[in-house]
Amino acid sequence: MRIIILTTLAMIAFASNSVLARMALKHTDIDAASFTAIRLISGAIVLLLVVRISNRPSSGSGSWWSAAALFAYAAGFSFAYVSLPTATGALLLFGAVQVTMIVYGFWAGERLLKLQLAGLALAFGGLLLLFLPGLSTTPPVASSLLMLGAGICWGVYSLRGRSAGNPVHTSAGNFTRAVAFAVVLSFFMLSRLSLDVAGIWYAIISGALTSGLGYVVWYMVLPMLKATNAAVIQLSVPVIAAVGGVVFLGEFITLRLVLASAAILGGIALVIVRKPSAQVTRQNIGKHFNAK
């Protein structure tokens, strides 16, 4: 029961990031750069407090390369949600993360079975369905590319974190470093600076609770789950985000989105449910992405 509760809380936290970002960037006047900076600062503060309270020996302090990937994800995520619906954004983000990790596993030595190749084809078919031209529900291309880029960056960040020591300590170091990038971005975006009290609170909640504490909860439960189970469980995040978009933002779930989601998430599920040579892949990933 403890594992179920913690896992559910972590998935709700991850999905809430999409809902909070969309609420802030659609219904308040805060600009995307400020939302990104406040989110990263809040996350860094919470993670540093957790590290201090835990009083455990440090085994990883992050790296500038990982921080750059984290910042690129957070910035792309924020700017994409200026115009993307919650469910579509979460689907593109999650799909890009999983495909990035699957492709890297293949490059690092893992070989896919025919069923897994069919799953990849199904997932890409769902992506094409989502962007079929001529329909009013087609998501904005520029924002969609930003979200796909954010997902790739988050996939890279996750791969680098596999061999970077204690995940909470490492995350605290990466968030702290990423703040520097966010400050630079805010400086270049001063002409578009726009702050809003509600938007600031959404960013703080996103950074401190659904990002900072959400990662801590996920790292607590992750050792208790099989790798495949953990990957499949994350398929629930876009679904939860879609429900949040309907409840809190009054968004509509279209038939095209339902079909595309089924194809993308179903295809990814076919790939990650059975991964041959998992041990070899983990060793290769650790070798190639060791965070110094």
TrEMBL record:
Pfam families: EamA. Its main location: membrane. Residues 2-131, 145-272 form the EamA domain. Keywords: Membrane, Signal, Transmembrane, Transmembrane helix. This is Membrane protein. Residues 1-21 form the signal peptide. The chain crosses the membrane at residues 31-51, 63-84, 90-108, 115-135, 141-159, 171-193, 199-218, 230-249, 255-273. GO terms for cellular component: membrane. It is found in: Membrane. It is a multi-pass membrane protein. The lineage of its organism: Bacteria, Pseudomonadati, Pseudomonadota, Gammaproteobacteria, Pseudomonadales.
